[in-house]
Protein backbone atom coordinates (compact mmCIF):
# COMPACT_ATOMS: atom_id res chain seq x y z
CA UNK A 1 0.00 0.00 0.00
CA UNK A 2 1.25 3.44 -0.83
CA UNK A 3 1.55 6.22 1.70
CA UNK A 4 -1.88 7.93 1.75
CA UNK A 5 -0.93 11.46 2.61
CA UNK A 6 1.49 14.27 1.83
CA UNK A 7 3.30 16.11 4.58
CA UNK A 8 3.37 19.39 2.73
CA UNK A 9 0.33 21.23 1.52
CA UNK A 10 -0.45 23.81 -1.10
CA UNK A 11 0.05 27.50 -0.71
CA UNK A 12 -2.14 29.69 1.42
CA UNK A 13 -4.57 30.50 -1.34
CA UNK A 14 -4.73 27.13 -3.10
CA UNK A 15 -7.08 25.25 -0.79
CA UNK A 16 -10.22 27.01 -1.88
CA UNK A 17 -10.49 29.04 1.31
CA UNK A 18 -8.50 32.02 0.09
CA UNK A 19 -6.35 34.31 2.17
CA UNK A 20 -7.01 35.42 5.74
CA UNK A 21 -9.69 37.85 4.71
CA UNK A 22 -11.24 35.80 1.93
CA UNK A 23 -14.92 34.83 1.93
CA UNK A 24 -15.59 31.38 3.36
CA UNK A 25 -12.64 31.49 5.77
CA UNK A 26 -13.54 31.32 9.43
CA UNK A 27 -12.83 34.53 11.36
CA UNK A 28 -9.62 34.39 13.38
CA UNK A 29 -11.52 35.30 16.54
CA UNK A 30 -13.26 31.93 16.63
CA UNK A 31 -11.81 29.19 18.88
CA UNK A 32 -9.81 26.62 16.92
CA UNK A 33 -12.33 23.82 17.56
CA UNK A 34 -15.03 25.95 15.90
CA UNK A 35 -12.85 27.06 12.99
CA UNK A 36 -12.15 23.59 11.60
CA UNK A 37 -15.86 22.68 11.11
CA UNK A 38 -16.45 26.17 9.69
CA UNK A 39 -13.63 25.70 7.18
CA UNK A 40 -14.87 22.22 6.26
CA UNK A 41 -18.29 23.65 5.51
CA UNK A 42 -16.81 26.38 3.30
CA UNK A 43 -16.54 24.09 0.24
CA UNK A 44 -19.62 22.60 -1.45
CA UNK A 45 -17.77 19.34 -2.20
CA UNK A 46 -16.98 18.88 1.50
CA UNK A 47 -20.57 19.65 2.50
CA UNK A 48 -21.96 17.11 0.02
CA UNK A 49 -19.44 14.53 1.20
CA UNK A 50 -20.24 15.13 4.87
CA UNK A 51 -23.99 14.85 4.22
CA UNK A 52 -23.54 11.61 2.29
CA UNK A 53 -21.31 10.07 4.98
CA UNK A 54 -23.69 11.18 7.73
CA UNK A 55 -26.61 9.51 5.96
CA UNK A 56 -24.50 6.39 5.37
CA UNK A 57 -23.52 6.17 9.03
CA UNK A 58 -27.15 6.57 10.06
CA UNK A 59 -28.16 3.85 7.61
CA UNK A 60 -25.50 1.54 9.05
CA UNK A 61 -26.43 2.28 12.66
CA UNK A 62 -30.15 1.85 12.10
CA UNK A 63 -29.94 -0.97 9.56
CA UNK A 64 -32.15 -3.30 11.68
CA UNK A 65 -34.80 -0.58 11.95
CA UNK A 66 -34.69 0.27 8.24
CA UNK A 67 -34.89 -3.36 7.16
CA UNK A 68 -37.79 -3.90 9.54
CA UNK A 69 -39.58 -0.96 7.93
CA UNK A 70 -38.87 -2.30 4.45
CA UNK A 71 -40.02 -5.73 5.61
CA UNK A 72 -37.01 -7.65 4.30
CA UNK A 73 -34.18 -9.48 6.01
CA UNK A 74 -30.72 -9.31 4.37
CA UNK A 75 -30.33 -13.07 4.69
CA UNK A 76 -33.84 -14.16 3.63
CA UNK A 77 -34.53 -15.60 0.17
CA UNK A 78 -37.62 -14.39 -1.68
CA UNK A 79 -38.50 -16.79 -4.47
CA UNK A 80 -41.60 -14.75 -5.33
CA UNK A 81 -39.38 -11.84 -6.44
CA UNK A 82 -37.57 -13.81 -9.17
CA UNK A 83 -38.74 -15.51 -12.36
CA UNK A 84 -37.42 -19.08 -12.73
CA UNK A 85 -38.44 -19.05 -16.41
CA UNK A 86 -35.88 -16.27 -16.99
CA UNK A 87 -33.05 -18.07 -15.22
CA UNK A 88 -33.77 -16.49 -11.84
CA UNK A 89 -33.80 -12.86 -12.99
CA UNK A 90 -35.77 -10.41 -10.82
CA UNK A 91 -39.38 -9.78 -11.75
CA UNK A 92 -39.94 -6.25 -13.03
CA UNK A 93 -37.73 -3.56 -14.56
CA UNK A 94 -34.38 -2.30 -13.24
CA UNK A 95 -33.56 -5.44 -11.33
CA UNK A 96 -36.89 -5.65 -9.55
CA UNK A 97 -36.93 -2.12 -8.11
CA UNK A 98 -40.39 -1.46 -6.70
CA UNK A 99 -42.22 -0.08 -3.69
CA UNK A 100 -41.58 -3.40 -1.97
CA UNK A 101 -37.91 -3.73 -2.95
CA UNK A 102 -36.40 -0.24 -2.95
CA UNK A 103 -33.11 -1.22 -4.63
CA UNK A 104 -34.35 -4.39 -6.32
CA UNK A 105 -33.39 -7.98 -5.51
CA UNK A 106 -30.49 -10.31 -6.20
CA UNK A 107 -30.88 -12.81 -9.05
CA UNK A 108 -31.39 -16.50 -8.21
CA UNK A 109 -32.24 -15.97 -4.53
CA UNK A 110 -34.34 -12.77 -4.40
CA UNK A 111 -32.53 -11.28 -1.41
CA UNK A 112 -33.36 -7.61 -0.92
CA UNK A 113 -30.47 -5.41 -2.13
CA UNK A 114 -31.37 -2.45 0.11
CA UNK A 115 -31.19 -4.63 3.22
CA UNK A 116 -27.85 -6.05 2.12
CA UNK A 117 -26.47 -2.60 1.28
CA UNK A 118 -27.45 -1.35 4.75
CA UNK A 119 -25.89 -4.31 6.54
CA UNK A 120 -22.91 -4.21 4.18
CA UNK A 121 -22.32 -0.62 5.28
CA UNK A 122 -22.19 -1.82 8.88
CA UNK A 123 -19.48 -4.35 8.07
CA UNK A 124 -17.45 -2.05 5.80
CA UNK A 125 -17.53 1.00 8.08
CA UNK A 126 -16.96 -1.02 11.27
CA UNK A 127 -13.92 -2.79 9.83
CA UNK A 128 -12.45 0.39 8.33
CA UNK A 129 -13.01 2.58 11.40
CA UNK A 130 -11.70 0.00 13.89
CA UNK A 131 -8.69 -0.78 11.69
CA UNK A 132 -7.94 2.95 11.42
CA UNK A 133 -8.17 3.41 15.20
CA UNK A 134 -5.89 0.41 15.84
CA UNK A 135 -3.47 1.64 13.18
CA UNK A 136 -3.31 5.11 14.72
CA UNK A 137 -2.73 3.76 18.24
CA UNK A 138 0.11 1.45 17.17
CA UNK A 139 1.71 3.97 14.81
CA UNK A 140 1.56 6.90 17.23
CA UNK A 141 3.00 4.91 20.15
CA UNK A 142 5.82 3.21 18.24
CA UNK A 143 6.55 6.13 15.92
CA UNK A 144 6.75 8.63 18.78
CA UNK A 145 8.92 6.35 20.90
CA UNK A 146 11.26 5.72 17.97
CA UNK A 147 11.54 9.39 17.02
CA UNK A 148 11.99 10.69 20.56
CA UNK A 149 14.23 7.95 21.96
CA UNK A 150 16.52 7.58 18.94
CA UNK A 151 19.50 5.24 19.10
CA UNK A 152 18.92 1.49 19.26
CA UNK A 153 15.18 1.89 19.92
CA UNK A 154 14.78 3.96 16.77
CA UNK A 155 16.87 1.51 14.75
CA UNK A 156 14.85 -1.54 15.84
CA UNK A 157 11.43 0.06 15.31
CA UNK A 158 12.58 1.59 12.03
CA UNK A 159 13.75 -1.78 10.70
CA UNK A 160 10.41 -3.36 11.68
CA UNK A 161 8.57 -0.66 9.73
CA UNK A 162 10.87 -1.13 6.73
CA UNK A 163 10.38 -4.91 6.91
CA UNK A 164 6.58 -4.66 6.89
CA UNK A 165 6.53 -2.03 4.15
CA UNK A 166 8.78 -4.20 1.98
CA UNK A 167 6.06 -6.85 1.73
CA UNK A 168 3.63 -6.78 -1.21
CA UNK A 169 0.86 -6.19 1.30
CA UNK A 170 -2.17 -7.19 -0.78
CA UNK A 171 -0.64 -10.55 -1.72
CA UNK A 172 0.23 -11.31 1.90
CA UNK A 173 -3.22 -10.18 3.09
CA UNK A 174 -4.81 -12.64 0.66
CA UNK A 175 -2.43 -15.41 1.74
CA UNK A 176 -2.95 -14.83 5.47
CA UNK A 177 -6.73 -14.53 5.26
CA UNK A 178 -6.92 -17.65 3.09
CA UNK A 179 -4.97 -19.66 5.66
CA UNK A 180 -6.69 -18.58 8.89
CA UNK A 181 -9.94 -20.16 10.18
CA UNK A 182 -13.27 -18.72 9.11
CA UNK A 183 -14.28 -17.78 12.67
CA UNK A 184 -13.91 -14.15 13.80
CA UNK A 185 -13.50 -12.94 10.23
CA UNK A 186 -14.06 -9.32 11.17
CA UNK A 187 -11.33 -9.45 13.83
CA UNK A 188 -8.89 -11.01 11.37
CA UNK A 189 -9.58 -8.34 8.75
CA UNK A 190 -9.01 -5.54 11.26
CA UNK A 191 -5.79 -7.18 12.47
CA UNK A 192 -4.36 -7.77 9.00
CA UNK A 193 -5.24 -4.28 7.74
CA UNK A 194 -3.63 -2.69 10.80
CA UNK A 195 -0.56 -4.94 10.62
CA UNK A 196 0.34 -3.77 7.13
CA UNK A 197 -1.03 -0.23 7.52
CA UNK A 198 0.59 1.13 10.67
CA UNK A 199 4.16 1.54 9.27
CA UNK A 200 2.91 4.20 6.84
CA UNK A 201 1.67 6.44 9.64
CA UNK A 202 4.49 5.28 11.93
CA UNK A 203 7.17 6.65 9.62
CA UNK A 204 5.39 10.00 9.41
CA UNK A 205 5.01 10.22 13.20
CA UNK A 206 8.63 9.15 13.73
CA UNK A 207 9.93 11.92 11.47
CA UNK A 208 7.74 14.53 13.18
CA UNK A 209 8.77 13.33 16.66
CA UNK A 210 12.46 13.58 15.72
CA UNK A 211 11.85 17.19 14.72
CA UNK A 212 9.84 18.03 17.84
CA UNK A 213 12.42 16.69 20.28
CA UNK A 214 14.70 19.59 19.26
CA UNK A 215 12.01 22.20 19.95
CA UNK A 216 12.26 24.63 22.84
CA UNK A 217 9.18 23.41 24.71
CA UNK A 218 10.57 19.85 24.82
CA UNK A 219 13.96 21.08 26.01
CA UNK A 220 12.19 23.17 28.65
CA UNK A 221 10.27 20.10 29.84
CA UNK A 222 13.53 18.14 30.09
CA UNK A 223 15.18 20.98 32.01
CA UNK A 224 12.24 21.09 34.44
CA UNK A 225 12.85 17.44 35.32
CA UNK A 226 9.99 15.83 33.39
CA UNK A 227 10.54 12.17 32.56
CA UNK A 228 10.48 10.69 29.04
CA UNK A 229 7.01 9.20 29.55
CA UNK A 230 5.50 12.55 30.49
CA UNK A 231 7.31 14.38 27.70
CA UNK A 232 6.11 11.92 25.05
CA UNK A 233 2.47 11.94 26.13
CA UNK A 234 2.14 15.54 27.35
CA UNK A 235 4.39 17.40 24.92
CA UNK A 236 5.18 15.42 21.78
CA UNK A 237 1.99 13.50 20.92
CA UNK A 238 -0.38 16.50 21.38
CA UNK A 239 1.73 18.44 18.87
CA UNK A 240 1.36 15.62 16.35
CA UNK A 241 -2.44 15.84 16.29
CA UNK A 242 -2.60 17.66 12.95
CA UNK A 243 -0.42 15.09 11.19
CA UNK A 244 -2.31 12.20 12.76
CA UNK A 245 -5.71 13.59 11.74
CA UNK A 246 -4.61 14.18 8.15
CA UNK A 247 -3.13 10.71 7.63
CA UNK A 248 -5.96 8.93 9.48
CA UNK A 249 -8.67 10.60 7.39
CA UNK A 250 -6.91 9.42 4.24
CA UNK A 251 -6.32 5.89 5.58
CA UNK A 252 -10.03 5.35 6.25
CA UNK A 253 -11.09 5.27 2.56
CA UNK A 254 -8.04 3.14 1.79
CA UNK A 255 -9.23 0.55 4.30
CA UNK A 256 -12.81 0.67 3.00
CA UNK A 257 -11.56 -0.02 -0.53
CA UNK A 258 -9.13 -2.72 0.63
CA UNK A 259 -11.82 -4.56 2.59
CA UNK A 260 -14.10 -4.44 -0.44
CA UNK A 261 -11.29 -5.78 -2.63
CA UNK A 262 -10.52 -8.64 -0.25
CA UNK A 263 -14.22 -9.53 -0.04
CA UNK A 264 -14.45 -9.36 -3.84
CA UNK A 265 -11.61 -11.90 -4.02
CA UNK A 266 -13.37 -14.17 -1.52
CA UNK A 267 -11.01 -13.80 1.45
CA UNK A 268 -12.74 -10.92 3.26
CA UNK A 269 -16.27 -10.95 4.66
CA UNK A 270 -17.72 -14.37 3.86
CA UNK A 271 -21.31 -15.29 2.91
CA UNK A 272 -23.96 -15.10 4.14
CA UNK A 273 -22.76 -11.87 5.79
CA UNK A 274 -23.17 -9.03 3.28
CA UNK A 275 -20.28 -6.95 1.99
CA UNK A 276 -20.23 -4.47 -0.87
CA UNK A 277 -17.18 -6.12 -2.42
CA UNK A 278 -18.80 -9.54 -2.12
CA UNK A 279 -21.99 -8.22 -3.74
CA UNK A 280 -20.00 -6.76 -6.65
CA UNK A 281 -18.23 -10.11 -7.12
CA UNK A 282 -21.58 -11.91 -7.27
CA UNK A 283 -22.99 -9.32 -9.68
CA UNK A 284 -20.22 -9.57 -12.29
CA UNK A 285 -21.81 -12.52 -14.09
CA UNK A 286 -25.15 -10.66 -14.17
CA UNK A 287 -23.79 -7.29 -15.34
CA UNK A 288 -25.21 -7.71 -18.86
CA UNK A 289 -28.68 -8.97 -17.91
CA UNK A 290 -29.16 -7.19 -14.56
CA UNK A 291 -26.82 -4.17 -14.41
CA UNK A 292 -28.53 -2.65 -11.36
CA UNK A 293 -27.30 -5.53 -9.20
CA UNK A 294 -23.76 -4.50 -10.15
CA UNK A 295 -24.29 -0.73 -10.20
CA UNK A 296 -25.88 -0.17 -6.79
CA UNK A 297 -23.16 -1.64 -4.52
CA UNK A 298 -20.51 -0.24 -6.86
CA UNK A 299 -22.04 3.23 -6.60
CA UNK A 300 -22.20 3.09 -2.80
CA UNK A 301 -18.58 1.93 -2.58
CA UNK A 302 -17.36 4.61 -4.99
CA UNK A 303 -19.29 7.44 -3.33
CA UNK A 304 -18.15 6.39 0.15
CA UNK A 305 -14.46 6.24 -0.77
CA UNK A 306 -14.69 9.46 -2.78
CA UNK A 307 -16.46 11.32 0.04
CA UNK A 308 -13.84 10.24 2.58
CA UNK A 309 -11.05 11.32 0.23
CA UNK A 310 -12.63 14.73 -0.41
CA UNK A 311 -12.96 15.42 3.32
CA UNK A 312 -9.47 14.09 4.02
CA UNK A 313 -7.97 16.23 1.28
CA UNK A 314 -9.70 19.35 2.58
CA UNK A 315 -8.55 18.66 6.15
CA UNK A 316 -5.03 18.19 4.82
CA UNK A 317 -5.12 21.58 3.10
CA UNK A 318 -6.50 23.25 6.20
CA UNK A 319 -3.81 21.71 8.40
CA UNK A 320 -1.13 22.77 5.91
CA UNK A 321 -1.98 26.39 6.65
CA UNK A 322 -2.45 26.13 10.41
CA UNK A 323 -2.03 29.85 10.81
CA UNK A 324 -5.51 30.16 9.31
CA UNK A 325 -7.10 27.74 11.75
UniProtKB/TrEMBL annotation:
Subcellular location: Cell membrane
Highest taxon in the source lineage: Bacteria
Keyword Membrane among record annotations: yes
Topological relation to the membrane, as annotated: Multi-pass membrane protein
SUPFAM superfamilies referenced in this protein's UniProt entry, alphabetically: MetI-like (SSF161098)
InterPro entries: BP-dependent_transpt_permease (IPR050366), MetI-like (IPR000515), MetI-like_sf (IPR035906), OppC_N (IPR025966)
Bilayer-crossing regions: 40-63, 123-148, 160-180, 186-205, 236-256, 292-312
GO cellular component: plasma membrane
Any one Pfam family match given in the protein's UniProt record, by short name: BPD_transp_1
Keywords linked to the UniProt accession: Cell membrane, Membrane, Transmembrane, Transmembrane helix, Transport
Biological process annotations from GO: transmembrane transport
Residues covered by the ABC transmembrane type-1 domain: 121-312
Location of the region described as Disordered in the Swiss-Prot/TrEMBL record: 1-30
CDD domains per record: TM_PBP2 (cd06261)
Membership in a protein family: Belongs to the binding-protein-dependent transport system permease family.
Protein name: Peptide/nickel transport system permease protein
Organism: Microlunatus parietis
Lineage: Bacteria, Bacillati, Actinomycetota, Actinomycetes, Propionibacteriales
